[in-house]
Amino acid sequence: MTPQPVSGAALHPRLQEIVDDFHEVPDRDRLQLLLEFSRDLPVLPERYAAHRDRMEPVPECQTPLFLAVEVEPDEAVHLFFDAPAEAPTTRGFAAILHAGLDGLDADEVLATPAEFSSRLGLADLVSPLRLRGMAAMLARIKRQVRDQRAAPRAAQ
Amino acid sequence: MALPQDSAPKFAEYDHPEMIVSTEWVAAHLGDPGLVVAESDEDVLLYETGHIPGAVKLDWHTELNDPVTRDYVDGPGFARLMSAKGIGRDTTLVLYGDKNNWWAAYALWVCSLFGHPDVRLMDGGRAKWIAEGRPVSTETPERPHADYPVVDRDDKRIRAFKDQVLGHLGQPMIDVRSPGEYSGELLHMPDYPQEGALRGGHIPGAKSVPWARAAAEDATFRPRAELEAIYLGEAGLRPDDDVVVYCRIGERSSHTWFVLEHLLGFGHVRNYDGSWTEWGNSVRVPITRGTSP
Questions:
Q1: How far apart are CA B270 and CA B172, in angstroms?
Q2: SS3 A67
Q3: pTM here?
Q4: pLDDT tens track of chain A, all 156 residues?
């Protein structure tokens, strides 16, 4: 077993709830839970579906994933992901971040610990290499939130 | 009891037609005693979304690798893994997977380190099976436990280590990564996890032949004449050459190893699984940057 971090920065309750869900099920059901998340990844809205170029590629994922981040004037953060159906693991990671972070405000998103993905108990089942993709998604989300706060982007 | 060979004319042109079967062949033999079909994918969840009915899952990362040392499982570990999947030493094992059989070829190469007598690839892999509208199932089969013997892993014949590659400089070598990885243009993104290596480029003398060139649009292997045009013609290899192939961790190069060893009948091809994640992080090994070997 890969050791699980026992301490670390507190998680937002929505993220903590996801972590708890993963730890409440036995090992072999954890992958099923990830699969269920992957099925719940929201469909891309038209403004991105027709404009992939408005999204940021995440090459650290083994399968190409695209993400877009919008910070509303009231600081609410919205996340959009696009990954192919043949990449359920990548879709699952994206769906976890969506379920945990979409709609939170910018400070809450930025407070998410970088090692959040390692708390899900997936390292042995999925492999640390694959989990790196989720850490990269989170890093890029946080960077986009910081950038957009510094320079709000033009309305699309 | 080994199952019959697939007698498709395309395969007959290859040097080892016994190493490859078509989707038709698999469909016709599913459920035959002595056959186990195994799916090996890049994505660890893809099998769960639906697979060939009765197929077992074989994960390259969590099952074929030692969990601590950077190495493959050892003889006892391989025996335990195969036994748990219901695979015996006399089983005809047919592997298939996503991405042009990239990971299935990797699994086949690892099985070959243990000399599994009858292991084959399903041409076209998962994509072709699904494109043809063949049945898939989400049911995980319960196969009876088998009694796979402990066989020593043979790292000499088809595997190369860093020191051996250093001694091989100047002899035929194929880098199967993308042109950008070969030339050493790294994607530099400050603050992002950089999976891979501290240095970019390729091993001096290695020629660039991206692995997927061996696959046609439908993920099947190209016919022999087209493969010869690439590897014998463009890359200038000869079947009696001593060849080392590599990529980033040895997975994509397993695909090329399969092409050279089994489809074109090269006698001495080794896969350097340390590949760029070892070479590009090693102190004082020679590196060439740019597009020339």
A1: 11
A2: strand
A3: 0.89
A4: 444 554 577 899 999 999 999 999 998 799 999 999 999 999 999 999 988 889 998 876 667 789 999 999 999 999 999 998 889 999 999 999 999 999 999 999 999 999 999 999 998 888 777 788 888 899 999 999 999 988 865 544
Distance from CA of A78 to the nearest CA of B (A): 21
Element containing residue A46 per DSSP (H, E): helix A46-49
Residues with Cβ within 8 Å of B167's Cβ and at least 6 positions away in sequence, in order, are none
Most A CBs within 10 Å: which of B39, B40, B41, B43, as the mutation test of the A interface? B43
CA distance B195 to chain A (A): 7
Burial class from Cβ neighbours inside 10 Å (0-12, 13-18, 19+) for residue B120 reads buried
Token representation of residue B218:
């439908």
Nearest to A87 among B43, B48, B193 (CB): B43
Residues 6+ apart with CB under 8 A from B216: B222
Q: What ipTM did this prediction achieve? A: 0.79
Which residues, including other chains, have CB under 8 Å from residue B6's CB and lie 6 or more apart?
B17, B20, B21, B22, B25
Cβ contact (<8 Å) for B46 and A86? yes
Secondary structure (H, E, C), chain B? CCCCCCCCHHHHCCCCHHHEECHHHHHHHCCCCCEEEEECCCCCCCHHHCECCCCEECCCCCCCECCCCCCECCHHHHHHHHHHCCCCCCCEEEEECCHHHHHHHHHHHHHHHCCCCCEEEECCHHHHHHHCCCCCECCCCCCCCCCCCCCCCCCCCCEECHHHHHHHCCCCEEECCCHHHHHCCCCCCCCCCCCCCCCCCECCCCEECCHHHHECCCCCECCHHHHHHHHHHHCCCCCCCEEEEECCCCCHHHHHHHHHHHHCCCCEEEEECCHHHHHCCCCCCCCECCCCC
Q: Compute the distance between CA of residue B73 and CA of residue B79 in angstroms, rounded to an integer.
A: 9
